[in-house]
């Protein structure tokens, strides 16, 4: 199962939690610019909070799917749509085989995140699948995503109801901290 980039965004990359502990060897931590939004996208689809996803900067890409799946979009409002039907942020969205997901210029925010149920099935380098263009890494983890890139999606279990309870608990904890 894969998703394919059919139109590039301004700066679309793969990001996860980043590389911790390798700065002394010349590798930056990298990782998602908006860690909270990336984490929330993963939790909404039932992934581990640190799973690799797609980070979009200012203008998002157009993506096609070759299988049914579930996605979530968080962060910047890039007016995501499928067949001109606008997709809400922060919700699990059913994607059907052949659907084309299109993003536009951000109305608010700068970084948007696309998480796919199961996560992206990419290699880890020094404990992370985050893109670091200046590090000279070969392949998809060393550059922004371009037209024709195909990203494999991990096969996963069905979403469990407990995910909703985890999200609720997370929001309750944040709410009580602000009181």
TrEMBL record:
Keywords: ATP-binding, Hydrolase, Nucleotide-binding. Coiled coil: none annotated. InterPro entries: CT_A_B, PxpC. Pfam families: CT_A_B. The keyword Transferase does not apply. Residues 24-178 form the Carboxyltransferase domain. GO terms for molecular function: ATP binding; hydrolase activity. The keyword ATP-binding applies. This is Allophanate hydrolase 2 subunit 2.
């Amino acid at each position: 199962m894969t998703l394919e980039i059919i139109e590039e965004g301004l700066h679309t990359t793969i990001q996860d939690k980043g590389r911790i502990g390798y700065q002394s060897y010349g590798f930056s931590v990298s990782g998602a610019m908006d860690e909270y939004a990336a984490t929330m996208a993963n939790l909404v689809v039932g992934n581990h909070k640190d799973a690799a996803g797609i980070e979009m900067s200012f203008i998002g890409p157009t993506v096609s799917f070759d299988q049914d799946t579930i996605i979530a979009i968080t962060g910047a409002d890039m007016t995501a749509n499928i067949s001109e039907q606008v997709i809400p942020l922060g919700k699990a969205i059913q994607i059907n085989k052949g659907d084309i997901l299109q993003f536009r210029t951000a109305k608010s925010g700068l970084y948007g995140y696309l998480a796919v149920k199961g996560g992206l099935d990419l290699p880890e380098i020094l404990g992370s699948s985050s893109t670091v263009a200046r590090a000279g890494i070969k392949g998809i983890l060393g550059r922004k995503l371009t037209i024709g890139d195909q990203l494999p999606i991990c096969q996963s279990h069905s979403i469990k109801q407990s995910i909703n309870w985890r999200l609720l608990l997370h929001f309750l904890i944040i709410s009580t901290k602000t009181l």
